[in-house]
Design brief:
By secondary structure, this protein is of the alpha/beta class. Helices cover 39% and strands 16% of the residues. It has an eight-stranded parallel β-sheet. A two-stranded antiparallel ribbon has the order 6-7. The chain is globular, with a radius of gyration of 17 Å.
């Protein structure tokens, strides 16, 4: 078994990055992290690279919307989708290896035709990314599990239509909120899983990315079956800390998740 590298999705601290990118990345390094998952990187490659070099950070994975057309505003309203060529050129310059599409809206998963369209578009992006020496992937929320296509979760139908080179990043919180049994889901995807998103919180009926919950917790303090996944002997390259929203100091929340992951993964070595 390969022990996953612990990473953090920089979306978790997007307000802090906007206010003080270098200082915020310095705080991430102080926690002990050396691997991050880049977010909103196309417009600030040089700034990110300078801070990565300064603090000894690397970003083997990154989030960028690719299935939607260029020029569309992202659902969080934080940025506009750049052309894929710009995304891939920026990712290569930053040392990214896998560019992961983090979100396609729930109404784009309603039918088998929707799922096929999403898969076809991501397969197209995979071919473009390969010209830059990169791979692409997809990151789920709850709706890809709650929506059923021929009796199966849409995410599984989607995976069956993807080129073998396309990877998956399974968000454990959202997958469990969507009703998935985590270990069978991950085992079914096999070596297609490049990373899991490690987030936690109470599991209750109605949790949905349509309205982000305000009670996410540090890893190990909620109901998500994180330890069971991380100690199951699966080959998962990266375990990525993320908060969609955190009520406390987000750096402290990241530090608590980092401590949980470090202890949990140490027990497997």
């Amino acid at each position: 078994m390969t022990t996953p590298e612990i990473s953090v999705q920089l979306y978790s601290i997007h307000p802090e990055l906007e206010a003080d990118l270098d200082g915020s990345l310095g705080r991430i390094a102080e926690i002990g992290l050396r691997t991050v998952e880049a977010f909103d990187f196309v417009r600030r490659v040089d700034e990110l690279k300078a801070s990565f070099d300064k603090y000894g950070l690397k970003a083997p994975t990154a989030h960028a919307i690719m299935i939607e057309d260029a020029g569309v505003e992202t659902p969080d309203g934080l940025l506009t989708v750049p052309p894929p060529e710009e995304t891939f050129a920026a990712a290569k310059a930053l040392g990214v290896q896998v560019v992961i599409d983090p979100f396609v809206a729930p109404d784009r998963w309603a039918t088998a035709d929707d799922v096929k369209r999403n898969a076809d578009r991501l397969n197209e992006r995979a071919a473009q990314a390969a010209e830059y020496g990169l791979k692409v992937g997809y990151h789920n929320h709850d709706h890809e599990l709650t929506t059923k296509i021929d009796g199966r979760p849409a995410l599984q139908a989607f995976a069956d239509l993807l080129d073998p080179s396309v990877l998956l990043e399974v968000d454990l919180y959202w997958a469990q909120a969507g009703g998935a049994e985590l270990l069978p889901l991950l085992r079914g995807f096999g070596d297609r899983v490049v990373a899991v998103h490690v987030k936690d919180g109470p599991m209750r009926p109605g949790i949905s990315a349509r309205e982000l919950p305000s009670d996410q917790t540090p890893a190990g303090q909620g109901d998500v079956q994180l330890a069971a996944v991380l100690t199951a002997g699966l080959e998962i390259p990266y375990a990525v800390i993320e908060y969609d929203h955190y009520e406390g100091d987000t750096f402290d929340g990241i530090a608590q998740s980092f401590a949980f992951l470090t202890d949990t993964l140490k027990s497997e070595q």
